[in-house]
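User: quick one, sequence for these tokens?
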């Protein structure tokens, strides 16, 4: 499978994961009393409403074809925190909703991988299709673990910062949130430089360990294919 074919296979999974993340933010905000996302038409599963030219299109293409991995994000859902019935609780719930959605999708993708494996055993003629679907599902596990852990970075305006700021003294919290003005530039720096890469690699260690555990747990149910076998052997050290 060449690079372009693999990209076309995994891109829909990444897009769905990013849309789910933003939808979860908007839905949680609505439940906390803020209808902003709903009123602006952003509380939808339509991916066109969530596409950001750089983070949703250019960044995934650049990281996949030049960096050996794929990463991106959707256009942030607008929220108005002053509408929350309880500002602090609402801010935390809305911020963590996207992360929770990605973790839920990761778990669902593990279950889907297992279900596909059992189906392929019962109907061997489906092996080729099952192998591709399992590959997409396992990418779904990896993407959603990455999105969840990445968004926990305590860097404004990422989701984790909305929790960290309540752990700081008020004066420090104000200065901390002001970093958000430069957050996008800091993120690009981290993604595109060696120093930033070292920091991100350390932060993403739980993703690698978690993904290895998942791979081992479903290994016996994976439908064999030359590509997936070599890929798994390299990761698991078999």
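Assistant:
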């Amino acid at each position: 499978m060449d690079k372009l074919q693999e990209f076309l296979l995994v891109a829909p999974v990444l897009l769905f994961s990013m849309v789910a993340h933003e939808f979860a933010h908007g839905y949680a905000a609505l439940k906390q009393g803020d209808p902003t996302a709903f009123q602006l038409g952003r509380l939808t599963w339509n991916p066109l409403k969530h596409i950001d030219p750089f983070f949703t299109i250019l960044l995934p293409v650049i990281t996949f074809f030049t960096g050996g991995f794929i990463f991106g994000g959707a256009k942030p859902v607008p929220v108005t925190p002053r509408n929350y019935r309880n500002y602090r609780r609402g801010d935390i719930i809305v911020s963590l909703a996207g992360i929770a959605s990605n973790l839920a999708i990761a778990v669902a993708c593990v279950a889907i991988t297992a279900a596909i494996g059992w189906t392929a055993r019962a109907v061997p003629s489906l092996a080729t299709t099952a192998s591709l679907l399992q590959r997409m599902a396992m990418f779904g596990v990896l993407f959603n673990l990455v999105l969840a852990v990445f968004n926990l970075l305590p860097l404004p305006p990422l989701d984790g910062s909305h929790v960290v700021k309540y752990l700081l003294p008020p004066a420090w919290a104000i200065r901390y949130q002001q970093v958000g003005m430069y957050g996008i530039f800091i993120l690009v720096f981290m993604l595109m430089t060696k120093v930033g890469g070292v920091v991100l690699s350390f932060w993403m260690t739980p993703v690698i360990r978690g993904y290895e555990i998942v791979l081992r747990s479903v290994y016996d149910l994976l439908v064999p294919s030359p590509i997936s076998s070599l890929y798994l052997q390299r990761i698991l050290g078999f």
